[in-house]
Write a structure and sequence with these properties.
By secondary structure, the chain is an alpha+beta fold. It is built from seven helices and seven strands. It comes from Roseivivax lentus.
Length: 207
C-alpha cells in the first residue's frame, strides 16, 4: 500500500477500518454457530445438556463482545450515522454481562454513532480502574458524557489516565490498554475536551 495513502487517512482511521473489517467478518459465522446450536436443541433426541448450554453461552458472549467492539473500535467516518440510546445501552449491557463491572446506562434519544464510540471507549478505560468490580454510572447532558464510579478499591494507572488529558505516554501500551490511546483521538476529532477527576474512592470522566 502507498505510504502516502496511510498518512493521508491517518493511522487511527486505518485502525478503525481494520477493526470494522474484522468484526464484520466474524459476526456472521459466529451468528451461524448460534443458530446451529438452537437448531440442535430443537431436534428431538438431539444434543442437550450442560455441554451444549456452555457452548451456547460462549457463543452469545462472543456475539455481544463483537457488537460492542464493532462500535468502540470500528469506523464511524460517516458523520450522519446515528444509533438509538436504547440500542447502544443494550449493546453495552450485553457486553458487560457476566463481568465484574456493572454499567448504569441513563442516556436517552438518538445518538451520533461517533458519540457512542466515545462513551464505549471511556467505559473500557473505567473497566481497568475497577478490577474488583463496581457500578459505572453513565449519563449524557447537553451533548456531553459523564461517567463516574465509586469504589474503595480503585486501581488507577496514572500514566495511562494522564494520556486522556494530553500527557504523552512514555511506553507503548499493551493491547489491553489501547482505548487510552484511541479515546483522546476520537474526542479531538469531535472537538471534545476530556476532564478526569479522582478522589480516594471516586473516579469521574467528562467528555
Amino acid at each position: 500500500m502507498d505510504k502516502t495513502m496511510i498518512s493521508r487517512h491517518g493511522t487511527a482511521d486505518l485502525a478503525a477500518l481494520i477493526g470494522s473489517r474484522i468484526c464484520h467478518d466474524l459476526i456472521s459465522p459466529i451468528g451461524a454457530i448460534g443458530n446451529g446450536i438452537e437448531l440442535m436443541a430443537m431436534i428431538p433426541g438431539g444434543a442437550d445438556g450442560p455441554e451444549l448450554e456452555l457452548v451456547s453461552d460462549s457463543c452469545r458472549a462472543a456475539q455481544a463482545r463483537i457488537r460492542f467492539f464493532r462500535v468502540a473500535f470500528g469506523s464511524s467516518m460517516q458523520s450522519d450515522q446515528t444509533m438509538s440510546a436504547n440500542e447502544a445501552g443494550a449493546i453495552l449491557i450485553d457486553f458487560a454481562s457476566g463481568g465484574r463491572q456493572r454499567p448504569d446506562w441513563q442516556a436517552t434519544g438518538d445518538l451520533p454513532r461517533s458519540d457512542v464510540q466515545l462513551v464505549f471507549l471511556a467505559y473500557l478505560c473505567f473497566e481497568t480502574a475497577l478490577p474488583r468490580g463496581g457500578r459505572i454510572d453513565i449519563t449524557r447532558q447537553d451533548g456531553h458524557w459523564q461517567l463516574h464510579a465509586d469504589s474503595e478499591a480503585l486501581s488507577v494507572d496514572a500514566s495511562l489516565w494522564s494520556t486522556l488529558t494530553g500527557t504523552p505516554l512514555t511506553e507503548t501500551p499493551t493491547p489491553a490498554h489501547v482505548q487510552f490511546m484511541l479515546l483522546p483521538i476520537v474526542a479531538a476529532d469531535l472537538g471534545r475536551a476530556i476532564t478526569v477527576g479522582r478522589g480516594e474512592a471516586r473516579l469521574t470522566l467528562s467528555v
